[in-house]
Amino acid sequence: MVKVCVLRTAGTNCDVETAFAFQDAGGDAELVHINEILSREKSLKQYQILAIPGGFTYGDDIAAGKLLANEIRYLLWEEIQEFVHTGNLVIGICNGFQVLVKAGILPECDGNQIATLAWNDSGKFEDRWVYLKTATGNNSPWLSDLPEIIYLPVAHGEGKFVTDEKVLDQLNVRNQIAFQYVDKEGNLAGYPFNPNGSLRNIAGITDPSGHILGLMPHPERFIHKTQHPRWTREEIDVPHGKLIFKNAISYFE
Questions:
Q1: Which of 94, 126, 158, 211 is catalytic?
Q2: Is 13 helix (H, G, I), strand (E, B) or coil?
Q3: Which residues contact 62 (CB under 8 A, 6 or more apart)?
Q4: Which 3 state secondary structure label does DSSP give 34?
């Protein structure tokens, strides 16, 4: 059975839901506190998937996800590098995406922070469902056979993806833009469809290999049709969030 490490620390609050989503997809998920890794009680070598879930790690002091990102960057970097370079998968959801970017694990796992997730343009916490356009041409196992447009909830105050134009162009050329905020018809659109003002409507990116995925929306909150806000009025196919978790498990099976 595929082993999943759901990494948690003070302030993480979506760990149980994320672990359940992997379990529901057929994996064997375990909640692991970062101190268990730092003390060598547990090792990332025991797992095939690393998930950093949502929440407000360390109260989002300084900036969202920054303190956990520093812990990973300065105390766990060799383990992270080995984990990634042996072909394993990594996902960061919401606060986890912020951590991956600020630790220099995304857009490339080289330890350099070249992007950030900044305060929403609206100046407030955005809690809504959004339409996302899935990348074409991206070979990421996480995105395998996803519909062209998927529907997931967001809940964040600092979700605006920001970097310079050169990096944005590079992400586009390398097909690293995994998800973009769109309207129901699949067109790039502004607020409220883009809930935070992300440059180029970026909602999620991968590394060049596609093995590392970071996204602001919460796939773990749409793994059963009854979680859809209109499930009593519309015919719901396979929940889009569930597909992402199943893709990761299927990759190793």
A1: 94
A2: coil
A3: none
A4: helix
Quick check: is 79 catalytic? no
Does the annotation count 220 as an active-site position?
yes
pLDDT per residue as tens digits for the range 189-247: 999 999 999 999 999 999 999 999 999 999 999 999 999 999 999 999 899 999 999 99
Calculate mean pLDDT across residues 21-46.
Answer: 98
What's the pLDDT tens digit per position in 7-23?
Answer: 999 999 999 999 999 99
Domains delineated in the chain: 3-252 (3.40.50.880)
Q: Which two tokens stand for residue 133?
A: 């356009």
Q: Specify the DSSP element, H or E, that contains 100.
A: helix 95-102
Q: Which of 204, 28, 250, 176 is nearest to 100 (CA)?
A: 204
Query: Look-up: residue for tokens 């991206």?
Result: 138
The whole model's pTM is what?
0.97
